[in-house]
Amino acid sequence: MPRPIQACIDLSAFRHNYGLAKTRAAQSGGQASAWAVVKADAYGHGLLRAARALGDVADGFALLDVEAAVALRDAGLRQPILLLEGFFDRHDLAACADYGLTPAVHRLEQLRMIRDAALPARLPIYLKLNSGMNRLGFRLEEIPAVRSELAKDTAAFLSSVTLMMHFATADGERGVDWQLERFRQMTAAWDLPVSMANSAAILRHPQTLGDWARPGIILYGASPFPDQSAASFGLRPAMTLSSRILSVQAIGPGERVGYGGIFEASRPTRVGIVACGYADGYPRSAPNGTPIRVAGVRTVTIGRVSMDMLTCDLTDIPQAGVGSEVVLWGEGLAADEVAAAAGTISYELFCALARRVPVIEIGDKREDDGRDKAEKESKT
Ligand SMILES: *Cc1c(COP(=O)(O)O)cnc(C)c1O
Asked: Which domains does the chain have, with CATH numbers?
């Protein structure tokens, strides 16, 4: 029998959450299309799994590698595919033309590469402008050079140009206005479609929706904000990481639990040992007191997370024992809460889900049709 740990991925949650992102776009009065951001193996949820679930609703998919983009094409997906970091070399550029991909362009040299490549098809590109994040993109003073490059022969090799920027503080107090202002300044002389909003901007700053929004974390049902829950927006968790209690220890006051003995019992304590550790992707930084659900009841972790196990307090859950179900995050316990306790964000928890954790899928549309209600086992 395999270890009881598993990640359950709810395909219907992807569709629900994507629909919610689109509804926000429509409510703002605009007609924004939305890239489903599926980079990093769909934030740890499985690229093809997420893409298939969204296949008939997503306007397009955004990710990083040509290889991942080709996998989507091979899976039969025909939507536009945006390469968020652009092409890395000539081979990538050729693949963009072959597979109909939309690369981001963030350096002048890349425009020249397009001109020199003699591609068999014109390319749609996203021009990435640096409006204050200071990672990728053209700075204000480079805009004239970009414009003159575009006015030259390069234009003949392009089918469309969209202006793109990324927010650094859409989730916090600084907000988006300072970057929007710079972006307007940079793009004043252009009349082109724009793509700006990440999840945080979609939820809090509808003025940023533009022509194409780029929702990521909300597709997976987590919140981009430290101070507002995903549930408050109507988002549904796509991933539930669960396991079981594999042993129980009864300890007395003054006894300690696990490596380093970082938890000391102050009362007679029932310690539940859970088959889940940092080698499964659970954060080792989770301190005593991190929320966890056992047998449907919320309790806390006690003691340090080890490679294959972690420990929790069952003292006030007498009905829980060996075999009881444990939810590490997902249904009934937001990944955001666990992440906050561990000093990180849900994005990192999802991306860290280990290969050794078996994945099962639920919420397949075929099941909705009633043909096969059984959970579908899938090999990743
Ligand atoms: C990852 C990413 C997104 C999605 O961000 P979320 O916060 O997950 O919504 C959008 N745009 C770009 C350029 C990204 O790299």
From this structure: 11-222 (3.20.20.10), 239-333 (2.40.37.10)
